[in-house]
């Protein structure tokens, strides 16, 4: 299921990392009119101290001025992108500055000087692109976890074949029915099945049977 599209930003918090000036004043005033609160994190020696653990993906938005060349300093998650939408403020459209904003997680850009009419569109794109990317990342992570646990499913199928005299199709179908009956994933059910019923080592060939290839 695709993530819902966010259209109302009232109650969100904008963290604006930029130098003072008329353009930023326009941005602040427009964000406030849209129902956001605005904060300006302190910048010291080109670094911005942010505790990523306090940021909320559903409520916070980062605005980063690419012309400042600042770096987000986060001791606990130094190698990770911010867990919130990032919108890059662009004055000089140099490839290096655009790349730096992309590397900090920007999903939308807002030209300087900021025009009132462009703020809502940029918010809409930046936030919803971030939500779509996060949803894809979660799906990929889930897929990778399930893939790593596929061997557990194969071992459970082999054990059921040995104990109950079933062929691989019947054993797989039975395990799926049982996992659906108790409302858990096939991998979790197979792991519990092996822990509760296996008293001997189950030999599984190094090459996984192809019977699972088209069933996921």
Automatic annotation (TrEMBL):
PROSITE patterns: ANTAR
Signal peptide: none
Pfam entry (one): ANTAR
InterPro entries: ANTAR, CheY-like_superfamily, Sig_transdc_resp-reg_antiterm, WH-like_DNA-bd_sf
Domain ANTAR: 133-194
Gene3D superfamilies: 3.40.50.2300, Winged helix-like DNA-binding domain superfamily/Winged helix DNA-binding domain
Superkingdom of the source species: Bacteria
Name of the featured protein: AmiR/NasT family two-component response regulator
Species lineage: Bacteria, Pseudomonadati, Pseudomonadota, Alphaproteobacteria, Hyphomicrobiales
């Amino acid at each position: 299921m695709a993530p819902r599209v966010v259209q109302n930003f009232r109650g969100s918090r904008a963290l604006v990392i930029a130098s003072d000036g008329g353009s930023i004043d326009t941005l602040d005033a427009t964000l406030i009119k849209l129902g956001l609160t605005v904060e300006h994190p302190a910048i010291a020696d080109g670094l911005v101290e942010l505790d990523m653990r306090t940021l909320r993906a559903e409520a916070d938005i980062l605005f980063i001025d690419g012309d400042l060349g600042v770096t987000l300093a986060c001791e606990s998650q130094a190698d990770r992108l911010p867990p919130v939408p990032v919108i890059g403020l662009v004055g000089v459209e140099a490839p290096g500055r655009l790349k730096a904003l992309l590397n900090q997680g920007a999903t939308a850009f807002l030209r300087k000087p900021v025009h009132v009419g462009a703020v809502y569109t940029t918010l809409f794109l930046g936030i919803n692109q971030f939500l779509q990317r996060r949803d894809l990342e979660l799906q990929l992570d889930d897929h990778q976890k399930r893939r790593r646990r596929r061997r557990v499913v194969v071992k459970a199928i082999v054990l059921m074949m040995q104990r109950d005299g079933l062929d691989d199709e019947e054993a797989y179908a039975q395990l799926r029915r049982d996992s659906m009956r108790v409302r858990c994933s096939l991998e979790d059910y197979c792991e519990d099945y092996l822990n509760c019923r296996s008293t001997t080592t189950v030999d599984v060939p190094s090459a996984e049977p192809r019977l699972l290839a088209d069933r996921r």
